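so my prof wants the structure for this chain in the tokens format not the other one, which i didnt know existed until like an hour ago. anyway here's the sequence
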Amino acid sequence: MTSFLLWMLAIQAMAIMGWAMMRRERMIQFPFLAAAVFLGWVFPQLMGLTAHPFLPPGGLEKTIFMAMLCLGAAWLGYEMNRRPARLFAWDFDYGRLLVGAAVMTVLGAFFFYQISLIGAEVTVETGGQWSGIITIYVFFSKLLTFGMALALILYLRKPNWYALGLVLFGLAFYLERILIRGRRAAMVELGMMVLLALWFNRRILPPRWLMFGVVFVGALVINSIGDFRSTMMGDDRFTWSGAGVSEILEIDYWGNLKRIATGESGTHNVVNAVMNIAAADRTLSFDYGLSHWNGLVQRYVPGQWVGHEFKQALMVDFTNQAGEVFGHQPHTGSTHTGLSDAFLSFWYLGAVKFLLIGLILSRWYRAAMQGQLAGQLVVILTITAALHAITHSTHSFFTVFLQLAAFLLPVLWFARRRTAAEFRPRRIRFGTRTPRFSAGWNAPGRGGR
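here's what i got, hopefully its the right format
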């Protein structure tokens, strides 16, 4: 039964990827990306657990079935929507948008600098599980991502040296996080930022074979990220070790993936999911979505300012069911996966969370395709969080919108045109030819077929 469910999950993921191949632009949309994560990250770990000797009876089968429900719900939610989002469909002043992008980028860079000053010390003290003032720096450092995304869109709409300078400035921080620290989220975020911005504003996409090649290589790299970090980072786990290309190529990428699939290593995340799902199914005790409140408090209420006791008092106390039923304690640094928190909320019906993620992203994607600036920014800045909903927790997606509102809304309000005047980017002789839009930022784009 386990093997049958596993291959059904693989076939389901491949079917969605085949659906995406029918129209090339689908290969940068959420269903295809989710299927790639399930096939390249979840599936090998599930396969590796078939030889695990200490899993609760039926727990693995329940987890595989939940994975199928969540992947199917993500695709269904995305496909069932036919309407674009209309929120913040405003006309904007280009100059003010550029000012907003510069302010966000510089502020974000400042907080990245603050992290660099204390990051190594905090890493040693906490074992990599950061807490304290550095978490506030991490929160505000996200401004750099917001500013860079906006600057990239502005450059593609009306190329100029100022926007390009902001993009290159932000790119330096991204390359440091990707090449030195081995941050998977930064790698995916940067790649999707470029692909989506090019598609929304220039209708440029790589060929299908290249997209599949990137997905395959990405799966190898992501499943070997531990070895990559060990190679590139020094003993303080924060600075560069001095390793170069030759050392990176020596990593056994295929061997690491094979060891995960055979259960020899790297299955801690999905083990947590199996234990949580099996425990909740046995006790039938669910949080009914209140765990999102805890995620909200954990992420946005600074204990350094309001007091850790007060912050803890704001949170709903949920017991560790896997610990109580099976004595399971998560491995340090591992995640529980979105499959787990969805099941802990509503049993198998928790897959509705992934249906909502698909539905929300579909509405904003359609708005982005019509030329809406807000739609483009939302899709670019939330797609990584949507994938984190699979690998980490669905809190990653649903709470990111508060950060969008806090950082982006003031900039959009500042740059909003108060009159009905149209914004027509004038053609200037720099870089690639700018596409024509008949009615400013919110003009319908050309068909995406």
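also thought this was worth mentioning. The longest helix spans residues 94-126.
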